[in-house]
Amino acid sequence: MAGNRSRTYRLTLSSEGTDLFLACHCRLARIAKSFIPYGATLSVALLLISTMDTDELVAELSMPSLKQLAGNDEHYVGASTELTPLAVAILGRIENSGQIDARPTIGKLHVAAIAVMSASEDRALARAYRQLSTAFPRN
Predict the structure, then answer these.
(1) Residue 139: what pLDDT?
(2) What percent of the chain has pLDDT over 90?
(3) Is there a contact between 136 and 80 (Cβ–Cβ < 8 Å)?
(4) 76 has which bridge partners?
(5) Cα(120)–Cα(4) distance, rounded to whole angstroms?
(6) Residues of the chain predicted below pLDDT 70
(7) Distance CA 61, CA 66 (A)
């Protein structure tokens, strides 16, 4: 019997970052009109940030406000194993642009994705949520 391929992702957030993630999660659940896993929220956030052009990504990762969202509180979110290749591809795109000195961490990308999600319109969240089944197919 084939199972769902998933793994656990560690988010290290500040209290403010945790509040923002939970606000995004509640907002997405309302849009979906369903109880959703926390991994769906992280997946939607990464899908949203993956659609940005490289200049926008670099600008988002350079925002001073990201430091307020990152922290030492560890939260574990189960999501598709396909999130890692997506994150690595996004980071590679940023690194290859030559617009930054050092490649950002996946953790920083997660924080930036949460910030982008919080600023996105409801219809963009709904569209990304509908894409989950095709972007991260279950085995």
Answers:
(1) 47
(2) 83
(3) yes
(4) 10
(5) 29
(6) 1-4, 138-139
(7) 7
Question: What per-residue confidence (pLDDT) applies to 137?
Answer: 73
C-alpha closest to that of 57 among 85, 99, 17, 16:
99
Q: Using N-to-C axis directions, what is the helix angle for 122-135 and 38-50, rounded to 10°?
A: 100
Residue-level pLDDT at 101:
83
pLDDT of residue 138: 64
Q: Kindly tell me the sign of the dihedral angle through the C-alpha atoms of 36, 46, 20, 105.
A: positive
- Adjacent-strand bridge partners of 77: 9
Q: Do residues 73 and 12 lie in contact, with contact meaning Cβ atoms separated by under 8 Å?
A: yes
Whole-model pTM?
Answer: 0.92
Q: How far is CA 47 from CA 2, 16, 74, 117, in A?
A: 25, 22, 22, 9
| Element containing residue 52 per DSSP (H, E) | none
How far is C-alpha 100 from the geometric centre of its chain's CA atoms?
20
Contacts of 67 (CB under 8 A, 6+ apart): none
Q: What SS3 class is residue 77? A: strand
Tell me, what's the pLDDT at 4? 57
Residue with tokens 């957030």: 13
